[in-house]
From TrEMBL:
It comes from the Bacteria. Residues 44-78 form a coiled coil. It comes from Caldicellulosiruptor diazotrophicus. The chain crosses the membrane at residues 6-30. Pfam families: MctB. This is Copper transport outer membrane protein, MctB. Keywords: Coiled coil, Membrane, Transmembrane, Transmembrane helix.
Length: 314
């Protein structure tokens, strides 16, 4: 009897504690849910405030961007006006020939720019990949009869003096070079337009040899150019050979720099590591430019006469 009473008592007490535990758990769950809901609502209010602030900041930034775009457009118009005024004021009577040694990039935009600004183009010579193969000894279809030095010399003489010999004729006939003769005048300025992709570095095979031959012509103005996006910096190599250079001839500042070099200025301009300045900070006067051009032409004419006499004696 006593054992049964004690057992009943223990079960009763345990039931009481279980009931208390369940009640506490239910109460805690209800309070927790209210707490979570309250916190969630507070976070939503905070996020909403932040979104409002972010929208205000975004609107402010968009307004600033529009203002900057307007300023950029205005600066672009001012730059165009100044460049056009410079080109009209600082015209050059130089006669220019262009040798395109790059087989990866086109220089048609440069040719259009020169023509548009009434810079006299005498001749345009474009080197073809087949000619590079000849110079790299990958084929000897013509080199058996014409040493490399003779072929490069013929190209230099034609580009500068408009002298055509049998070697040059063979180069054209075999489509190793493409020529466009616009006038028969002596060119006092030669532009070497290079630059290639990383897989096609032909500087030593072509550019170096052509420049060496051109540098043998006294008082000839030789300028090295390339576009800003050229993978290989040929202007760095041109500079090492003593040439004036423009490494961003596709850009407005590069075009101004090029015109200044054609007029007789000096320097290495552009955006790459070999450049000393982005563009000239002083411009050659018209008198100085014309006097320099006159001396250059007189010297080149004398050399041309000697070449003619030498050819006549042969």
């Amino acid at each position: 009897m006593n054992g049964i009473s004690i057992k009943y008592f223990v079960i009763t007490i345990a039931s009481i504690f279980v009931a208390l535990g369940v009640g506490i758990l239910i109460g805690f769950s209800v309070n927790s849910e209210k707490f979570v809901q309250k916190q969630f609502q507070q976070q939503l209010i905070l996020i909403d405030k932040n979104l409002v602030e972010l929208k205000k900041e975004n609107d402010r930034l968009l307004k600033e961007i529009d203002e900057y775009k307007t300023q950029i457009n205005q600066l672009g118009k001012i730059n165009d006006t100044l460049v056009n005024a410079y080109l009209k004021t600082c015209k050059s009577n130089a006669v220019v020939s262009l040798i395109v040694t790059s087989t990866d990039y086109s220089y048609n935009d440069l040719i259009d720019f020169l023509r548009k600004n009434q810079i006299k183009l005498a001749r345009i010579v474009k080197v073809k990949k087949s000619f590079i193969d000849v110079l790299n000894n990958k084929t000897n279809a013509i080199s058996e009869y014409n040493p490399h030095e003779d072929m490069i010399a013929s190209l230099a003489l034609y580009t500068t003096f408009n002298i055509e010999n049998s070697t040059l004729v063979k180069l054209i006939e075999n489509r190793y070079i493409e020529t466009n003769r616009l006038s028969g005048e002596i060119a006092d300025t030669i532009l070497i337009a290079g630059g290639n992709t990383l897989q096609n570095d032909t500087f030593n095979a072509v550019d170096r040899k052509v420049i060496e031959k051109l540098r043998n012509i006294n008082d000839l103005n030789v300028i090295g150019v390339e576009q800003s996006y050229s993978e290989i910096n040929y202007c760095e190599k041109y500079k090492s050979m003593g040439l004036d250079t423009v490494d961003n001839v596709d850009e407005l500042t590069g075009k101004v720099s090029l015109v200044e070099l054609i007029r007789g200025g000096n320097g290495n301009y552009g955006t790459k590591k070999e450049a000393n300045f982005l563009m000239p900070n002083a411009f050659t006067s018209i008198d100085v430019s014309e006097n320099s051009l006159k001396k250059r032409r007189e010297s080149l004419l004398e050399q041309f006469k000697r070449l003619q006499s030498s050819n006549a004696m042969q």
